[in-house]
Input
Amino acid sequence: MNRLSIIGIGIVAVVLIVAIFAPWITTQDVGATNLSIRYLPPTAAHWFGTDSTGRDIFARVVFGARISLRVGIVVVSVSAIVGTLLGALAGYYGGWIDRVLSGYVFNVFLAFPGLLLAIALVAFLGAGLNKLIFALCIIGWVGYARLIRGQVLKVREYDFVQAARALGAGDARILFVHILPNAIQPLIVQASLGMAGAVLSEASLSFLGLGVPPPAPSWGVMIEEARDLSTLQNAPHALIFPGLAIALTVLAFNFIGDGLREYLDPRQRKR
Amino acid sequence: MKRKIFGLLRRVAMLVLVAWTVVSLVTLLVELVPGDPAVAVLGEQATPDQLEQFRQKHGLDRPPFFFSFPEDENGSRHFRWFGWHNRYTDYWTAILNGDLGRSFRTDRPVVDLIWERYPATIELAVVALLIAVTIAIPLGVIAGKKRGTLTDNAVSVFALLGISLPSFVIGPMLVYVFAVKLRWLSPSGRFDWSDIILPAFTLGAALSAILTRMVRSSVIEELGEDYVRTARAKGLSERKVVYKHVLKNGLIPVVTILGLQLGILLAGAIITEKIFGWPGLGLLLVEDGIGKRDYRIVQGCVLAISVTYIAANSLTDMIYRWLDPRIRVS
Output
């Protein structure tokens, strides 16, 4: 693993700890407004200052980590499982199953720009965290499916798979015991980059008002609230801290993904 | 020749099938609205008469699809066939006549609204693309040429930052610096030529980062090829080797990415347009469509953006095949 991915793992560990121990890290109420202390700069009492309604930005950033990671973990897990199953099915059985799945279904999902499909789904279903997660899963699985299909196509021709077949192993056993464990390595890279994408998408949809409804402390909502001209003028830190939180988290997952890719593909290691 | 025509036909058929599914999904999206769309649009205070009138006017009183499984008094479901007179065929007939319905709020044809906003979005996407290319090619070439050096690392970190910083963070930060602090540019709107600078930079930032990485690895790959050694051996200057030979070959994969990115830019423009009040399709979708629950506008915008995306992708694919004969053969 290269240096950048170690840094990435460090940042992700910090975000994870912050998310798990949020109530112990800050005792401030994330929703409590107090107009007499609005636009405060960072001080000892309010580490990241306060926003346009006097809420503590540090507390909101800390609790925002919970929403981001929850969305990321659920979306990546569900997408990876569904994508792996469908991709494996298409790659292993080939024939008309493959033609329908990879020739048609995958292409239909790739024909929409992902973010647009998520926006459209949430716009019609109504805003909310669970609907947002559902929409991100709908756009997320196809990347994993394509990846696993390609891997399965390659691995199913290996000698040990032929040997297992000759010994009389059934399709399920060949697929789940012999092929998938050997095909799944690049999935880890994709999952890491997928976490970055999910955190970013959650913030984007929340920014558009389609995610967790305010006053929930999503990083995207915080940025949306901080971007009006009077807040920008009086309290630019209200934009900078949640912005940094998103950027660092996404950067960290990208570092890990890039590092893993290099680690798993020796040809890239020299570059 | 026969195989070639057959292959082309199969690709066109696939494209038609995908486009048909995309349009069908968009037409059926309105069925996802929980409860009654008429109540969602007019509000709880609307009288039954008003609701009924609204449903009739927008065809919402007709069955949604060819068939359904409605529940009877006993709670059991039965198959029921509605025939050709349903919302799905209504929408298709309208689309084939170039009609996307009327806005639920303003009663204006959605097609007109889209045509009014379309040029602004395309303008923004194209300028963003140009900015991204102008930044990415020199940076990528320098990083590739000086691989492993401090310059290369600095460019790589810049690129990763560009990918990780979302537009809704970059945009307001640019507004803070150039509109609030320096007062050089206006924070929003589309009145003066300079108004496009901030939105285009915001939209192009991530793309410039992706392209920089691509150009870099492409240059590294090409520098290892035999023709580079030959060019160097015959005494060409390093500058000529890189800019005349390496860049020409290295740009082929970059061109593909560019085409694919044009569609992604269109989707990304939704957020950028909201940040800067840029009156394009994205703002129409977010403010007039989603914000005011005008589902017809949402359908129309999603359709317009998706169709542009599919068209841009197919065009790129064709140009790419034409440019690189190796792909045509495989």
Notes: The radius of gyration of chain B is 25 Å. Chain B touches chain A through 54 residues (CB under 8 Å). The mean pLDDT of chain B is 84.
